[in-house]
Amino acid sequence: MKSFPVLPSSSGDISNTAGGANPYEKQPSRAFWRSAVSDLSPIEMDGVYEPRFQITRDTRISAAGSCFAQHIARQFKARNYSFTDVEPAPPFLDADTADSFGYGQYSARYGNVYSIRQLLQLFARAEGAMDPDDHVWLKDGRAYDPFRPTIQPGGFASLAEMEADREYHLDQVQTLLGQTDLFVFTFGLTEAWVNKRDGAVLPTCPGTHAGTFDPETYAFRNFRFNEVLQDAEAFIALARQHNPDMHFLFTVSPVPLTATATDQHVLAATTYSKSVLRAVCGELAMTHDFVDYFPSYELVASHPMRGIYYRPNMRNVAAEGVARVMDIFFAAHGDTGTPEPQQTETPAIPTSDPACDEEILEFFET
Amino acid sequence: MTLNICGNSHTRALRAGMQILEDSVAEEVVVFPLGTADNEAEPFSTIENGRVVLTNDRFRTKLQKNFGFSSFGPADRWGICLGTHNYRLMRSEAWLRAAPAWLGLPGMQPVPEAAFAQMVAADQRHIRAFFDQLLQTGVRPFVISAPWPVRTHPIMTETGVRPEIIKAIDVKARALFAAWLAERGIDLILPPDEAADEHGFLRPRFAKGGDDHYHGNPRYGRLMMKKVLESQRVAIAA
User: Fold this and answer.
1) How confident is the model over B167-189, as a mean pLDDT?
2) Which of A46, A135, A277, B182 has the greatest count of CB atoms below 10 A from its CB?
3) Searching chain A, which residue's CA lies closest to the CA of residue B117?
4) What are the extents of the domains in chain B?
């Protein structure tokens, strides 16, 4: 099992600092807005992230999360970290095709996991503790997995094919936590659609990619701080049953909501979502010394960045922004090398944008 | 009009079969291989001056030497033996852990049909490009299938990949290619049923044998060429 050297803490307060007229006198320049932000261009900003524990190439890393998390997973692989993938692409699929079929994006073929509740339920399904009411969505004679509706372009050829694929998928997911030293999760949204009967969280709204929206069956949920926190704590407890030394790296996706199902403006709804998720990450990091927070959200979405890392739609993160965020992350862990294509049978890393299921919502704007 | 038949190494058995049949066929039928199937893994053709030329040196040389052509033209009659040599898809140890989803083999990673179709399309992309070029330039070819897979292939006998997986890969790849050809109005001539054993592999009496785990023998070539000639309405004396 991989040990994690603990680095000097940077998250404690300064009230016990001895000497000086006041505690701020001993604070480094990164603690002051003028020297750390105002006097610098966004690309000069330094020390935004100081790791709490070291991640090495021996650390077995698994990842899940919203679509921005695909960048993180790809970078770990490209830099030859020990990235766990329990469901690699079948043979002969080229990189782009494998990516379009959801292989290699994360540590298994589970697609985007937007909420920690969805993650928790994924492992519950894998362990047989949850058997959701939503079994299959049929559309144009094709079968869709309600919990991975975009994983198979055009759907599965038959119900039997989908069931076989899901059974294998969940079997692999069940083995994942036992092969993980560090679990990386990127929080995406607080908004979700759930089945009223069993509370199963769906990654997409029924009736968008597939399925049929029935208000008697499905309900909108906008998770609150306490719910997200409790789910995260439950996931941490579950993961540590498999590996008592499991560490966690949490991030918040800087990608705004494509659309909100609340009565709020989408900007306000996005701010609510991201604020809750950011606060939960902070809470978790303050509670557990085995939890670290990486500020990918701040590095892209905060106002000092002036939106320079977004594409013109102010939603998609430009490749330069992704590269900048990843460089900061890996440099903080002592890795200043450039990512390399993999030399294994796993397909090479696609260069395309990550697959974001929720972008289909733009289609429904009237 | 002369019937020209060319293709990968499976054309050798057709040539041997044609030599057996030669005396009983009134029309001129010329059969020669262009080269081995590994030449298909890279682009090997293009269109120049409205005709399809072969850019692969070996293929081009063989076409010129054996048929006297430097290109494929619409006035000629062509049977092409390409596109069903599925061993590139089969011979991977990955099939020890993965299986076509439609087989429903427990414990194996299911490869969905749509993903498999992508694999086949990728494997055949240069062959498909060649046929599209032929059609674009007015050549109306037909396609002659390679024999059924050979049961003694090391991917099964040495690596241990299950025969039903190999067979399923071959059957589906042929079906996908046949559908692709049919969309373009190109006929695919499959091997004769009597050449297959009860599991769908090439009967040993039709396999080349020895260290060759890919090809049919002259007996197979004769059987297949009879089917080819019948499909092209070439009369064969009894």
Assistant:
1) 97
2) A277
3) A93
4) 3-89+125-156+185-231
Residue B166: enclosing H or E segment and its boundaries?
helix B163-183
Reply yes or no on whether the pLDDT at B170 is more than 90. Answer: yes
Q: Residue A306 burial by CB count (10 A; 0-12/13-18/19+): exposed, middle or buried?
A: exposed
pLDDT, tens digit (0-9, with 9 covering 90-100), for A261-294:
999 999 999 999 999 999 999 999 999 999 999 9
In what helix (H) or strand (E) does residue B51 lie, and over which residues does it extend? strand B51-54
The strand pair at A142-144 and A182-187 is best described as unpaired
Binary contact (B110, A157; C-beta < 8 A) = no
How many other CB atoms are there within 10 angstroms of residue A98's CB atom?
23
Residue type, A316: N
Is pLDDT at A352 greater than 60 in this prediction? no
Specify whether the CB–CB gap between B12 and B220 falls below 8 A: no
Which tokens is A261 given?
A: 């199902």
Q: Given B110, B115, B123, which is nearest A164 (Cβ)?
A: B110
What is the value of pTM for the model shown?
A: 0.85
B101 to chain A, any CB pair closer than 8 A? The answer is yes
Backbone angles phi, psi at A249, to 5 degrees: -120, 115
Identify the band that residue A344 occupies on the pLDDT scale cut at 50, 70 and 90. very low
Q: Report whether B142 contacts B187 (CB < 8 A).
A: yes
Whether residue A101 lies within 8 A of chain B, CB to CB, comes out as yes
Chain A, residues 269-308, CB within 8 A of chain B, namely none
Residues of A within 8 A of B118 (CB-CB) are 93, 97, 101
For the cut 60, the answer to whether the pLDDT of residue B157 exceeds it is yes
pLDDT at A250: 97
A93, A156, A161 member nearest B118 (Cβ): A93
Q: What is the mean pLDDT of residues A164-187?
A: 96
Q: Which amino acid is it at A80?
A: N
Do B118 and A97 make contact, defined as CB atoms within 8 angstroms?
A: yes
What is the count of residue pairs from A and B with beta carbons less than 8 Å apart? 63
Instruction: Note whether A168 contacts B92, CB cutoff 8 Å.
Output: no
Report the gap between the CA of A144 and the closest CA in chain B (Å): 12
A141 touching B (Cβ < 8 Å): no
| pLDDT, average across residues B19-26 | 88
- Contact predicate A328/A51, CB 8 Å: no
Q: What kind of fold does domain B3-89+125-156+185-231 have according to CATH?
A: Rossmann fold (3.40.50)
**Bridge-based pairing state of the strands A142-144 and A137-139:** antiparallel
Closest CA to A83 of A112, A111, A59, A103: A59
What digits encode the pLDDT tens for the residues A92-149?
788 888 999 999 999 999 999 999 999 999 999 999 999 999 999 999 999 999 999 9
Q: Provide, as residue numbers in chain A, all residues whose Cβ is less than 8 Å from the Cβ of B123.
A: 92
